[in-house]
Structures are given as C-alpha cells and as structure tokens.
C-alpha cells in the first residue's frame, strides 16, 4: 500500500518524519503537562496542609490559614515534610521536562536558564524547613524571581501568541511579583502574616503555564497549523513559513496525514 511518504518523497524525508514525531511528543508534553503540573502542585499543598493539621491537632499556626511553609514543616520532622518534599520533587521534574519542550517549541532557550535556577531554588526551599534556616525564605524569593524572569522571557519570545495573550501573560507575571513582594515584605520586615497573598502568588505561575495548554488546545490559532488539502509543494511551505505544517493526502482510497516540523525551515 502506498503512503504519503511515497506520494511526496520529494517533500517528506525520513528525517522530516523523525523530526515530526519528536515535535508531536513536545506538543503533547506542553499541551497536557501544565495541567498535570497545576494539579500536582495543588495536591501537594492540600495534602501537606491536611496532614499538618491532623498531626498538630488543629491549625499549626493557630489561625484559619497558615503560610505554605508552615503546612510543609509543622510539626517538626512530621509526615507532612515527606509529602511536601516528594510533591515538590515531582513538580520540579515536570517543570524540567515541560519547560524544555516549551523552549524548543518557541525556539528560544533564554528562559531555560531562569527556569533551571527556579527549580534549584524551589528544591532548596522544599528541603530546608522554615524553622531550620532563613535560607528557606530566601530560596522561596529566588524561586519567584527566577520564575518571573523565565516567564517574562517566554512571553516576549513567543512570536505565535496573540497580543492579548502576551498582555495577559505579562499581567500575571506582574501580579505574581506584586503579591509575593507584599507578602514577603510584610512577613519578613513587618512580621505581619498575610498568607492569602502568598497563595495567590504561588498559584499564578502555574496558571501562567496553563496558557501554554490553552494555546495548543485552540489550534489552529494557537500554533498556526496549516492544513494543505491540495497537493503541497516545498515552495508553498517555504513561502508561508509556518511551523509545524500538516499535510493531508489521499492514497489508495485511504486518508493519510503527516505532521512536518521542518519543511518551512529549509533553505530560508
């Protein structure tokens, strides 16, 4: 049985198909990964808080809502610390994979430097309890700072995003820095506890990541897929300069479809 590769051998090479498969995997990671990441983070905080409250036989901070750090470290050496650390290790691993895939999709790796630093700082925050050292809080501040820089770089370099999407993303980054800055300043300098601000600041970066899912789930607007229903040519793909390009063809009465990720990148 003939295939799309047979019909368009001048356009589709084995190398193209291999790159297409890799690009499809990256798409799926960036499409569904942020949703899994958001859920992992929420479950980590929820389970840590639940266990902390149970072991403390009430609120560990004697208030209706405690800081994230308190739920992750009270009582000392309790089971909540295992949940907290395990959860953040899972968050870190997912961040590593998703952010790398995202950097490849937008063809910009500047943000990966900041994301990498954020992951290191986040793990330091998770494994150094708040009662053990002030490094815990400084690591948290470094996490937010690096995430903000990485996400700002991401928003700036995503040429396929609409102006409204870019504006919304940058608004989320500014809100994150603002809420965290107010909470951190009040907590460290004035010794005033406003945990609600911390929770808002903590969830906003993960909400930002879900915009990557939205962008991919709303194709063709999201990644500007091009569906060529007629006989495609290399010149058409080069002229349109769209990545990736989806080619449809009819062969032996059966529809065949292949996603090409590199056609428009040749001989620019």
Essential attributes:
268 residues; mainly alpha; three-stranded mixed β-sheet; disordered N terminus
Could you outline the blueprint of secondary structure elements for this entry?
Blueprint: H1 4-7, H2 14-56, H3 68-71, H4 79-106, H5 110-127, H6 135-157, H7 163-188, H8 195-217, E1 226-228, H9 234-240, E2 245-251, E3 254-260
Parallel strand pairs: 1-2
Antiparallel strand pairs: 2-3
Model regions low in confidence, pLDDT < 50 over at least 5 residues: 1-10, 220-268
Give the count of helical stretches.
9
Rg (CA only):
23 Å
Percent range for helical residues? 55-70%
Question: Could you explain the architecture of this structure?
Answer:
- The chain is mostly helical.
- The chain is 66% helix and 6% strand.
- It is built from nine helices and three strands, in the order ααααααααβαββ.
- The chain has helices at 4-7, 14-56, 68-71, 79-106, 110-127, 135-157, 163-188, 195-217, 234-240; strands at residues 226-228, 245-251, 254-260.
- The chain has a three-stranded mixed β-sheet.
- α2 packs antiparallel against α8 (195-217), α4 packs antiparallel against α5 and α7 packs antiparallel against α8 (195-217).
- The longest helix is centred in the N-terminal third of the chain and has 43 residues, at 14-56.
- The chain starts with a helix and ends in an 8-residue tail after the last strand.
- Mean pLDDT is 80; it is low at 1-10 and 220-268.
